[in-house]
TrEMBL record:
Protein name: MBL fold metallo-hydrolase
Transmembrane segments: 20-43
Keywords from the UniProt entry: Membrane, Transmembrane, Transmembrane helix
Residues annotated as domain Metallo-beta-lactamase: 140-335
InterPro entries found in the cross-reference section: Metallo-B-lactamas (IPR001279), NAPE-PLD (IPR024884), RibonucZ/Hydroxyglut_hydro (IPR036866)
Listed Pfam families: Lactamase_B_2
Amino acid sequence: MQEAGAKQFAKTKKPLGKRVIKGIGWSVLALLGIVLIVGTLFLNLSPQFGGTATAEQIVRYEESGHYQEGIFVNQEPTSVGGPSWDLINEMLFTEAVQAPEKAPEVISLDPALVAQPDSITRLTWFGHSAFLLEIEGKHILLDPMLGDTPSPAPLPGPKRFSRELPIEIEELPYIDAVVISHDHYDHLDYESILQMKDKVGAFFTPLGVGIHLEAWGIETDKIHELNWWESYEYKGLTLVSTPSRHFSGRGLLDRFKTFWSSWVIKGEKENIFFSGDGGYGTHFKEIGEKYGPFDIAMMECGQYNTHWKEIHMMPEETVQATLDVKGKLLLPIHWGAFTLSLHDWREPVIRASKKAKELNVPMTTPKIGETITFDGRDYPVTRWWEEY
């Protein structure tokens, strides 16, 4: 009887291997479930992702002439690129040096001197696309991503090449205005905004980006959202939102939900162009015709790839765009701080330098923290990247 029971048990009992595989399968499913739950909570609860437009705000977007079927659109057909076997192969097997071997030198700014108003215009690069502009006694920050990682969470994101900033946020004086080109993490940083918001007089953004600032506790009367070609007179300066060829988004489902732009900042003496991000297009000539010439053109030059060439210029296009906007001096930006593409980290400035020489376009290459002074002095042209 016992023997018969044992035989019956042997028939019904599953082999050990199948039981192990089934156990692993359930464990994997449980882990995936936990990841999904945590990810969903993070996406919905983390303030990093910003705000959501109200119905009233969407009505204004629809009146802009650049908003169709629930999203903002470019002036000309634009592809943001996407995954492909060629791109995956490039990512897996690239031999490019994507970061310097040691942290680049950063020139420190004296907080006391920065706080002192001056009639001379100064422009200081913080790496990538972040700048401090001192013009006619005013202090303006451009795309002040001053954090360590341009991502919603610090661990998976790329780290800043340099170990410090030219000046820490708490050492900055009163900031008359912050100008934002679009809402990507390498241009609009939640932690940076939180640290500086109480000493900023005004924020200038493209349409829609203000919803993030509102969600982060900034008073609505400090936020000025501009459509392309709209201008705003502020403390003796003229700020104009001008076109760019790009896209937006901070989460999984909000791509194109806010607008993007380049900017013109015009004072009594200097006329300055800030490209923000974007691919090459006909808008540069249009900007040059309406608002050029510019004393300096801060032009995107980095984080490009042929797979997304319509939303990030190649370095040679950067130089041509400078000619298009009638820029007297080219300052390449969007490089030198983070690895966000697959090219060698030095390649953007090397290629741009070569093309600028061919087309006889004056170009300045400041170190991070080095100030360009608009008083007739020579501008920085050192090839500092060769040391790294």
